[in-house]
Amino acid sequence: MVERKCIMAVGAHSADMEFSAGATLLKHALNGWEVHIVHLTLGEKGNHQLSPEEYGAQKRRESEAAAEILQAKPHFLPYKDGELTVSDEIACEIAKLIRKLQPQIVITHWRDSIHTDHTATYHLTRRAIFMAANPHFDIDNLPTARWIRFYYAENWEDHENFRPFVYVDISDVFEDWERAFKCFAIGRGEGGFPYWDWYQSQTRIRGIEIGVRYAQAFAVDDWRMRQKRDLL
Ligand SMILES: [Zn+2]
Per-domain residue ranges for the chain? Predict the structure, then answer.
């Protein structure tokens, strides 16, 4: 029997995971993995011309279009942009998805961010992974999900103390990732911040660091860097 393989990315706002880990997710899809992108909020307060309702609807459409290119299934949780707090109620909703989907890998934000929603997402996702693994948390009678490996994606807003450890060569999916990226108006440079310039440059720099054209880099917790050897 072929083992079912599943990877899940949890972002604070629609576009966060597509920008920081989208190419890596697509690579997994092309290698037979089921891919899920969880959006805690739509990032609906990020446009000064449109109302949160209008921009939220637009972000949702953009995420769906990007997910199709990335061969991922999007999940939209009902929380509000700019108002995420670390609560067991939200962690439990993420844990519910983790137990339903049983991913082997979860990607989320790095801890030190200039955006409080991102920092909250880091804590919420870690808490959810803990709750999903412990049988004493009764979460809709769902089976526990254990031994999840988790990684932190490289996001321009989460760069303080971010130390890349695992690099994924994304050269062969770069163009598809760019198409997914540009499903978002902010990915096409509308709205002021040059997202594409930053992510394109950063993936090139990470590529140079490992001797390929483009790479996405991920941080891990310090304890996961331990290596057991008999000799150096
Ligand atoms: Zn964000």
Answer: 6-222
Centroid of ligand 1 to alpha carbon of 153 (angstroms): 12
The model's pLDDT over 146-197, given as tens digits with 9 standing for 90+, comes to 999 999 999 999 999 999 999 999 999 999 999 999 999 999 999 889 999 9
Q: Tokens in use for 86?
A: 């670390």
Question: What is the distance between the alpha carbons of residues 109 and 114, in angstroms, rounded to a whole number?
Answer: 12
pTM for this predicted structure: 0.96
Centre of ligand 1 to C-alpha 71, Å, is 21
Q: pLDDT, tens digit, for every residue of 91-133?
A: 999 999 999 999 999 999 999 999 999 999 999 999 999 999 9
Centre of ligand 1 from the C-alpha of residue 138, in Å: 30
CA–centroid distance, residue 229 to ligand 1 (Å): 39
Q: Ligand 1 centre and the CA of 41: distance in Å? A: 9
Q: CATH homologous superfamily for 6-222?
A: LmbE-like (3.40.50.10320)
| CB contact set of 86 (below 8 Å; sequence gap of 6+) | 120, 123, 124, 127
Which residues surround the ion ligand 1 when the cut-off is CB under 5 Å? 12-13, 16
Q: For residue 160, what pLDDT is reported?
A: 94
Q: Which residue has the tokens 């090139």?
A: 204
CA of 13 to the centre of ligand 1 (A): 5
